[in-house]
Amino acid sequence: MRISWWLTVFLTVIPWALLAKEQMVEVSPHLFKTGHDYFLVLEYQHKNGWHTYFKNPGDSGEATAFQFFIDNKRVELPEPLWPFPETIKYGGINTYGYSGAFALFFKLEKAWLHQTMKIKTSWLACKNICVPGLAEKEITLNQKNFHDDLRLQRYFEKLPTVINSPEKLTINLIRDEKNQKILIYYNFKDPLTQKFPAHQNFLVPLTTHQFNFGSEKLVIENERHLAGTMEGNFEGEYLEPPLAFPTLEDLRNKYLFTFLYQDPNTLQTFQLTHQFKSANPSSKVLAPSTIKTLPSVWYYILLALLGGLILNFMPCVLPVVSLKLFGLIKHQQESHQSIFFHNLAYTTGVLFCFIVLALIVFLIKSAGGQIGWGFQLQSPSFVGLMTLALFIFSLNMFGLFEFSTPGGKLMGNLRLKEGLFADFAGGILAVILSTPCSAPLLGTALTFAFTTTPLNIFILFSFIGLGLAFPFILTGIFPRALILLPRPGNWMNIFKKFLGLSLLLTSAWLLTVLTSLIDQDVILTTLGPAILTALVSFILRGKWHKLRLLFLCLSLSFFVVFVIKVQTSNDLDKINSLKLIREKQTKGLNFSPWHPAYEYPSDQISFIDFSASWCLTCKVNEEIILNTDEFKALVKKYNLKLILADWTSGDEEITKWLKEHGYVGVPAYFIVSKNKKFHDLGETITIREIEETIKKAISETK
Questions:
Q1: CA-CA distance, 63 to 207, in Å (whole number)?
Q2: Could you tell me if 97 and 233 lie in one domain?
Q3: Burial profile 673-682: b = 16 or more Cβ within 10 angstroms, e = fewer
Q4: 20 to 30 A Cα–Cα from 502, which one of 15, 46, 49, 378?
Q5: Above pLDDT 70, what percent of the chain?
Q6: Is 205 inside a domain boundary?
Q7: Are residues 28 and 82 in the same domain?
């Protein structure tokens, strides 16, 4: 019996003694300089499978600690920059800590340079068991020893960036005096673009103020937005002397909480300090559910491809696609190689333009700006240029002059080389004219593209381009499919004039868009004369070469004046800010303008219409739904408050609001209940869908 007892003691104590002797963590001090800042770096190396703890260890564990001495006197260094911790789960316990290697950076005062510093650091290292550790180090703060070591630089670059609370993250607090705890709840507003790692934390408290924070509970709302809650139990009552539970006023004004958070889309980490000015006295607790899996990027790629294909049948693109088909019919009898290169040039133009658009989106997002689908049609200069260019294209179709059109090999005296360039230009034109339309499936793909990583932006835009060019890729690879098209003949001269009319109507539509962006006087005095002088210059062909050249120069001069006037005026976009509302009011719909701080009535159901003058999908919805007697009867029956958000000129507040609700363009429609809950109706609407949503909103307030 005695032998077995000693054997038990031996088997229990000896491993602990060996572990205590063998350090599970190796600590080494370093000196690091970046810019004008000097840092003491403590690097911790863990043995395989072991971990130590973060400043806020979570449900259990003990934070890594440190003390510093100069001339045997303790000195206080500023709080180190902590790396974003791992979430370590064991059973139902969640803790925060580090495995492998990590480093803490302590900023040094210049007065300490050239002195010797002693360092004491302690930790709790855990694997299957936990073993306390202690190390004492010494380092001379000699200025020559500071350097920008590449390994230390990598540690430094991974540290969370210190920022103010970002707009896309909201953090709120509820005080629960009865249970002596607080509840922190938060929302990440940007739509998620990838699956958030289930083993990771989104938000980690760095300063706790006598609150012991439990595990974070996360939920994906509507498969788009990340939200979470975290409870903090007050432990001040166990101190000596005990501390009283903070009042609501103290939580609002005296307590500053510091958090580390990880952006779920980019996985970048940040450190922010937050003051809960809007702390809530209620003790209601959110009920988070489990994290749901988001669709993979391949799902959005498929939507982008199909959405691009459907764009070929939208009214925006039909004139240009018809021109391309006209060219294919004309060259049915050419070699397979010639047809292939015509279609390849068109496809290259489409892809080139989409890549340029993706680059613009990336650059504006990188600069912190807001951008959405169809952004180029919010520029008066660009719309003016397209109006003039399409007008000239239409003159070509009517035979007033000739140059190579998309798909044409020989028109006038131009060669095949110029025809290929015209195919390339036709692809660019098709992309530009496609942006006022939002095809089915395209909206979801675009929302993902506008909120995802830079690489995914380019991938998604490229696949939209491949979808738009797909019919011509197919006929380029399989030219025998062209036998399905009618043979060339005299009918093509009539069809050519029909195409000219479609381009002329498109140019006229762009002119109406322009009147929504700028004052009509600017158009009449600058762009109007540019169009007229262009028309005269093309009529004066043949012997009137010099006079024709003069009118061409006049047309160009008028257009330059138009651009200068648009770019130098700050008031042009404000002149017609209420024009879209007035148009709707003439249809018998009493819309009021939307703004970010809009106070939705508590005694009415609201209907919000996000629209733009250049949006063809919006116009279709207006004609078949919003301007009908059925919708007006619905407005009267339910006493709807009609609200219009006019995105014609690219209002940044509207862009931001749409992104927060999963849209990157218009149209978008919402029903707002009396208790301010939003119901998304989508991009295409029906009377039945609107009424069912209204009934649902009414039932929520009963």
A1: 12
A2: no
A3: bbeeeebebe
A4: 378
A5: 78
A6: yes
A7: yes
3-state DSSP call for residue 122? strand
Q: Which pLDDT tens digit goes with each residue over 374-413?
A: 666 667 887 888 788 778 777 776 765 544 434 433 333 3
Tally of domains within the chain: 4
Is there a domain that residue 568 lies in?
A: no
Cα–Cα distances (Å) from 93 to 126, 199, 217, 687, in that order, read 14, 13, 13, 51
- CATH number assigned to the domain comprising residue 252: 2.60.40
> Quick check: 353 and 431 in contact, CB under 8 A?
yes
Structure-token pair, residue 379: 């520029």
Find where tokens 């380019």 sit: 458
In a domain, 395, yes or no: no
Cα dihedral 386, 387, 389, 394 sign: positive
CA distance 247 to 231: 17
Category of 114 on φ-ψ map: left (φ > 0), alpha (ψ -120 to 50) or beta:
left
Indicate the SS3 state at residue 33. Answer: strand
Residues 53 and 119 in one domain: yes
Residues 331 and 264 reside in one and the same domain? no
Q: What is the pTM of this model?
A: 0.51
Q: Please say whether the beta carbons of 269 and 427 come within 8 A.
A: no
The secondary structure of residue 644, as a DSSP letter, is E
Instruction: Of 185, 456, 472, give the one whose Cα is nearest residue 311.
Output: 472
Could you say which DSSP state residue 490 is in?
T
Nearest residue to 43 via CA among 116, 124, 127, 135? 135
Edge-to-edge strand list for the sheet holding 203-205: 161-163, 269-274, 257-262, 203-205
Closest C-alpha among 107, 103, 104 to residue 36: 107
**Separation CA 1–CA 415 (nearest Å):** 107
Region 102-121: mean pLDDT is 90
Which residues form the domain of 233? 163-274
Angle between helices 318-330 and 416-434 (to 10 degrees): 160
**Residue 466: CB partners within 8 Å, gap ≥ 6?**
305, 308, 347, 351, 473
No. of helices (H) and no. of strands (E), the chain: 20, 24
pLDDT of residue 8: 42
d(CA 615, CA 610): 10
Report the CATH number at residue 119: 2.60.40.1250
Pinpoint the alpha helices (H) of 435-490: 442-450, 454-477
| H or E element, residue 520 | helix 520-522
Secondary structure, 3-state, 396-437 = HHCCCCCCCCCCCCCCCCCCHHHHHHHHHHHHHHHHHHHCCC
Helix (H) or strand (E) holding 366: helix 336-366
pLDDT tens per residue, range 17-48: 444 456 789 999 999 988 888 899 999 999 98
- Write down which residue in 240, 274, 308 finishes a domain: 274
Hey, what are 634's tokens? Answer: 């619905």
Q: What is the dihedral of CA 395, 401, 407, 411, to 10 degrees?
A: 160
Q: List, for residues 356-366, the tens digit of each pLDDT value.
A: 988 888 887 66
Residue 128 and residue 175 share a domain: no
Cβ atoms within 10 Å, residue 308: 28
Pair 122, 263 in one domain: no
Tokens of 456: 């995914």
Whether 340 contacts 423, CB under 8 Å: no
> And the tokens for 559?
């257009």
Q: In the chain, pLDDT over 90 holds for what percent of residues?
A: 17
Grouping H, G, I as helix, E, B as strand and the rest as coil, residue 115 is coil
